[in-house]
Write a structure and sequence with these properties.
The protein is an alpha/beta fold. It has a domain of 144 residues: 3-Layer(aba) Sandwich (Rossmann fold). The chain has six helices and nine strands; from the N terminus they run H-H-E-E-H-E-H-E-H-E-E-H-E-E-E. Helix 4 links the parallel strand 3 and strand 4. The mean pLDDT is 93.
Length: 213
Amino acid sequence: MEDSYVYKGLRKKLVDELSSKNIFSKEILDAIMKVPRHLFIAKGFEQLAYKDKAMPIEAGQTISQPYTVAFQTQMLNIKQGDKVLEIGTGSGYQTAILVEMGAKVFSIERQKELFNSTFLLLNNLNYHPQLFYGDGYLGLPTYSPFDKIIITAGAPFIPEPLKKQLNIGGRMVIPVGEKSQKMILLEKKGENNFDITEHGIFKFVPLIKGKTQ
């Protein structure tokens, strides 16, 4: 799939911009430099792929702006080999960033159309996370516990099943709220003991229960 020097140059500019916005993790910036974001967005928008903006994708959804992807990832504090649950595969861009960073990614998508197209795209780009078509609110109890959990849509509350599926010592990053969301970092200190902190206001598409046909 096509990746040109022009796109690589635009990625470098994006990396510099994110670095100036306090994205300090070298691993994240290196991953953003490697992942060709223009292949993850709707046709016709490729020239805008490296602006720090959300973009349309299939099924009426969006790909988060690069700063949001980098910010959530930085809060996760990913280590090589971390087992990560992602709720909302979407375009697969966040998934690819996590795989580039050496995480073992398990990702759930509720939109069948998106699940099918993203599965093919990631495979074609040689990214091989474990993808599941299902309801993100339920997580993946069979594959739990997870070291890190990332939710890429706005949730009205923190789903209990996801809290249970987090390892003790693990981190969950979740945007919580209706029209706009507070970015929440949840750190699991014991079976029923959590440290919860807020990290700014963001805007996400809503996290919806169930799955489409």
